[in-house]
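User: Fold this; tokens only.

Assistant: Input:
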Amino acid sequence: MTKMTLGSHPFLLGFDQLERMLEQAEKSGTEGYPPFNIEQVSERAYRITLAVAGFADDDLSIIVEDRKLVVRGRISGKDEDRVYLHRGIAARQFMKSFVLADGVEVIGAATGNGLLHIDLERAEPEKRMQTIEISRG
């Protein structure tokens, strides 16, 4: 039996990009650190919240490239001279990525109380109608 993919179905023209996005999402950061939430705050708005305790704003970076939101955290070696008797607060570097649908844009990011909030918004879809002329030939 042959596996049917989105890109090969005759009625789904141009959906091969969706299939690639699904594969990319499957490969992206399945590690559980740092923990995060994704919430829908309105009909077209979302918020990603990551627990980034111990990270300063300068230790974090947020990049959107090719419909992929990438959040990185790297604590600079400020506390190399400290001697810990117990270290229960994770301070390791991380990279977390999220695949964004077409029309979803990052509208802002803020930190507070050890959390990084990234706000997203989906643009209103355009309703278009196109009439195609049939040429005689």
